[in-house]
Task: structure prediction
Amino acid sequence: LLLSFHGKLDWPMIFGTYIGFILLGASFIAIGVFVSQSSEGIVSAAVLTFCALIITFIIDFMQQYMPATELSGLVWAAILITIPLFWLYSKGRNWVVTAAVALILTAVILLLWFLDRNMFAGLIGKSLGWLSLTRRFGSFSMGILGLDSILYYLSFTGFFLFLTIQGLEKRRWS
Result:
């Protein structure tokens, strides 16, 4: 308000930046709450949350130093399919179903590899860019309220709050 006496302010840009800060802060808080419920002590929760938030800041810088070859993208895709496979096995404890899903996902990746190898070029950087929280904030600071950025922040926050609730429920029933 004090600055408005000395000149004209760009109010849409200011409100967009505030909305962006609120959504970015909600995402950071959701990460912190999840890490806090996952760890045992206060100090370890603070240190792990700090490390997780530092990683979200440096993802943009790491992205440009990742290999962008087709082969590295294929290896990264193979690594990425192991995450749902571990989750599937931990939920069902059934090697047959997990192996069948692994074969199907591997076949899909190899089929895509043989159809269009260029699809795998730069896959590591693209997937790291998708995880970046700070890159999406840039549009808010210009006063642009992109629906994709708003939905990303809301879904990111909701996902980590969902994981927090699941962890608390698991701890309660254990």
Q: What stands out?
A: The radius of gyration is 21 Å. The first helix runs from residue 11 to 38.
